[in-house]
Amino acid sequence: MISNRIVIAGSRSGVGKTTVSLGLMAALTKRKYQVQPFKVGPDYIDPGFHALATGNQSYNLDSYFLGRDGMKELFKNRVEGSDLSIIEGVMGVFDGKGKKGESSTAEIAKTLQAPVILVVDGKKMAQSGAALVYGFKNYDSELNIAGVVLNNIASQRHYRLLKEAIEAEPVNLKVLGYLPRQAELELPERHLGLVPTRESEGLSDFFSQLVEIMEEYLSLDHIFQIANQAPEIEIDYKKLYNKKKKYNIRLGVAYDQAFNFYYQYNLDLLKELGAEIINFSPVKDKKLPEVDALYLGGGFPESFLQELAANKSMKKDIKEKVTSGMPIYAECGGLMYLTQEIVDCQKNSYSMVGLLPAATEMQNSLQEMGYQEIEAVNDSIILKKEEKAKGHVFHYSKLNNWQDEVDCCYQIKDNLEGYQPAQNILASYIHLHFGSNPIIADNLLTSAQSFKQN
């Protein structure tokens, strides 16, 4: 049985739901509650901020990747031992994949029977804010919107106008507080959203200021009470966890300011199967640690091109080890790092590892974004032919200047992807969620075990 949970939703993107979510996480953690954070959807960056706010790893709740039952199982597994779960939504509360809003904040909230706090940007609004909230409250009668937090409030008078209108009939929703206009609390952003925690400076001061504002302007006790009123639910579904430990593998995972996009479940599953995760930095370390396989996640290598190019000993070590047969799986930023070179938007070229016979060229516009379902058309180190998996893609670069033909392992609608220049190498723009097909972790560690034994 699980209870004590709340969803922080936004009327649209950019209304401040991340700020409110982080503030609540940090403020309630300061009050000595064990707060377990979650993020709706495929986002890679917000969970890093959740971890800083609470001291606990954040997990993605995504029914497209996991199905509703799998998403509920992941939630149940991670909330055990916590006092409260705070789930940050995605985009607007009803925005999701396709016409049915799959993996929307509303779908996840309803599936988990979790009360919702709606964050609304009150800038340049008064009584009209009540009409906006009324629409969200009545759009879907199955969604339990239990309260409202107002952002961008100019004055106490402005707040009273909105609060009185929203708490009166016909809306009749409790306003739980507000955030005054505080430009200095804005975190730096990039095209994918917030700048990753590894690149953000002054975060300690940010959280300290944010907690002070939460304590002054929000009714934290009332918010905790709402979370405590969530009904208990039984979840009996076993697909994602309780795997047998059957490998003895040291897995090198690229983790630094350039590479830090990983679904936490992926790493958990690898550990559960017996992998020891050994983090290393392609930016700073001179060579690889002693490992049996490599996992290069996504990130922003384009922001550290000089450092990556200058670290010749690391690039040389990776190329030599992989050429000798060590398995390597690379996603998005990791794929870029494995190409011959990365060319930035000013046409400057930076030499990379050179395991993938192509050049990465940065573009000024988004090249691809969205969920992807893949089917393996060839065997690889993570999937056998006809096995399927799901992931998400978002990138501003493209591959050009191919020097050799390379096999592709993935069928995605009418396209081929999943580049395999050798049997022990797989590189793709797609961030796969291993929960969509846990055999991925088994296959990767089997490949590592074979390399280790040879």
Overview features:
5-stranded parallel β-sheet; single chain; 28% strand; 7-stranded parallel β-sheet; 454 residues
Helix content: 25-40%
Query: Based on CA inertia axes, which overall geometry fits?
Result: globular
Continuous helix count: 13
Q: Which class best fits the helix and strand makeup?
A: alpha/beta
Q: Percent of residues in beta strands?
A: 25-35%
C-alpha-based Rg, rounded: 23 Å
Indicate the low-confidence ranges by residue numbers: 190-195
How far apart the termini lie comes to: 47 Å
What average pLDDT do the residues reach?
93
> Biggest sheet: strands, sense, closure?
7 strands, parallel
| Spatial order of strands in the largest sheet | 3-2-4-1-5-6-7
Number of strands: 25
Plain-language structure description:
With 454 residues, the chain is an alpha/beta fold. Helix content is 31%, strand content 28%. The strands form 6 sheets. A 7-stranded parallel β-sheet has the order 3-2-4-1-5-6-7, with helices on both faces.
